Amino acid sequence: MKNVLSRIFPEERNIPNENNISLIHQDGYLCDGEIVKWNGETESVYSPIYVKGSSGLERKYLGKYPLMSEAEALKVLNAAVSAYDNGKGKWPAFSVPERIKCVEVFAEEMKEQRDLIVNILMWEICKTFKDSQKEFDRTIEYIADTVNALKSLDRNSSRFVIEKGIIAQIRRAPLGVVLCMGPFNYPLNETFTTLIPALIMGNTIIFKPPKIGVLLHSPLLKAFQNAFPEGVVNTVYGKGEKVIAPLMKSGKIDVLAFIGSSRVADILKKQHPKPHRLKAVLGLEAKNAGIILKDTDIQLTVKECLSGSLSYNGQRCTALKILFVHEDIIDEFISSFVRESENLKIGMPWEKDVNITPLPEPDKAEYLTDLVNDAVNKGAEMMNPDGGMFNQTVFYPAVLYPVSEEMKVYQEEQFGPIVPVVSYKNIETPLKYVQESPYGQQVSIFGRNHDEIAKLIDPLVNQVCRVNINSQCQRGPDTFPFTGRKDSAEGTLSVSDALKVFAVRTLVAAKDTDLNKSIIDAIVRERKSKFLSTDFIL
Predict the structure, then answer these.
(1) Domain locations in the chain?
(2) 279: closest CA among 32, 492, 30?
(3) Which of 40, 202, 278, 468 has the smallest C-beta neighbourhood within 10 Å, fewest atoms?
(4) How far apart are CA 157 and CA 173, in angstroms?
């Protein structure tokens, strides 16, 4: 493995032409329907991929993007606030079919940029080419599913309710200005799982791409501009303290849609002068546990745990980040897991069937090495001989056992290719871990005995928001609710839940009198209101 890692990075001439990338110098930002030319300070973007040159290894330069100041950020804010106009703006006043049409126009223009976005995604965050394609395609599918979910929601709201002498129509109305900030590991898909539902429900948007994964959004600026009215979608770029802090401190942000760390989320929320008015939709950390019972199907379990812990280098909030294995099968499990892990292919993201690719976060390999050293110094062993070796941004997966609670890797979310394994005798050990954990997203149970599994389900569903049986933790399908308890999330995301979380139930009501009935009838019949309407979307 040492030799493999020493030769892991390519020479420029050996990068396949179809996978190489042209420089992307983004010189504009979207504000009030215009792509504003930027001539100020910029941030250079480098890939996690190093390339061999005459002077040795150098990170591949990808391009640059604007480093905006507070003044530009506030201009963007004013554009979004003006476009919403206290709910009187063109966009929030649009009918549901009108908003759907705009989103569909955007999706069609987005599809035209597929190949370019997929390639930039691969270079910026080193997701495999195949998985980068999946992320793009899943995002397009999510947009279509969101449109269909909104049609269904609107159909259910198209009728009047008469209850205890009151006539009412109940619909959902937008909340205002939404600040959307996505994560680096799914910079397209997870960003759009908040941006698209917030948008289609009539809110106006300020969108800041993640610090890693900025350039891939550049090809979409024109699509946003073409598809939506002025000021509905706006973008900001730069350092958070310069462009995000002023937005939050203004008090004009109505919804914070943020996927990242709880530390940053807490800072952002505290900056808002009226936090009780700020609605937060947050996807935060997780330390999902796998609980492996002694009667488990070893082959199936190893397959699921391997993919669950090391897919995209373990850089997923839904990754399995600690494994609790019954002591009766611990040796067999580890032996099988290590054997299968050695079949994982390590290389560049465009290579066929590659599994382990460079890590996009700065100094990540050093952080992971610190976790490994801490665990080894406190009694853990490296179960795979090559585990923990790294070259620059490429880190070979480390399987650590026995892991105990005094080790940092037992508590911290590693968000990388380290697999901590804990042996247990009493099932209370993993249950206690989940109960005492500050995180509460998901858990996986592996076993055959339905009685034993049943005993775990009830206590676990009150600690986490998804219990997976004989399968790894995961987000999909997108129609299922995706959220977490404790420090792992705030608000629920899924195709239908997201529509509800970015809107509020609002109703028009009147006493059931002849006068009121005639008024409502005239408004509906003459189509005087887009809210008070019985139009049915097919």
Answers:
(1) 31-37+68-283, 288-484
(2) 492
(3) 40
(4) 12
* Residue type, position 208, single letter: K
- Rounded CA separation 133/120 (Å): 11
**Which two three-digit tokens encode residue 12?**
């420029």
**Pair 498, 145: CB distance under 8 Å:** no
- Mean pLDDT score, 480-493: 94
Gap between the Cα atoms of 456 and 460, Å rounded: 6
DSSP calls for 453-509: HHHHHHHHHTT-SEEEESS-----STTS-B--EETTEES-BSHHHHHHHTEEEEEEE
Residue 312: CA atoms inside 13 Å, Cβ hemisphere, count?
23
Distance of alpha carbon 367 from the chain centroid: 22
- Distances from the Cα of 124 to the Cαs of 59, 127, 239, 266, 500, in angstroms? 11, 8, 18, 27, 33
Q: What is the dihedral of CA 388, 394, 397, 401, to 10 degrees?
A: 30
Neighbouring CB atoms inside 10 A of 140's CB total: 17
Record: fold of 31-37+68-283: Aldehyde Dehydrogenase; Chain A, domain 1 (3.40.605)
Which residues neighbour 280 within 8 Å (Cβ) at sequence distance 6 or greater? 255, 256, 258, 265, 269, 490, 491
pLDDT in tens, 458-474: 999 999 999 999 999 99
Q: pTM score > 0.90 for this model? A: yes
Tens digits of per-residue pLDDT, 208-266?
Answer: 999 999 999 999 999 999 999 999 999 999 999 999 999 999 999 999 999 999 999 99
CATH number of 288-484, picked from 3.40.1550.10, 2.40.50.140, 3.40.309.10, 3.40.190.10: 3.40.309.10
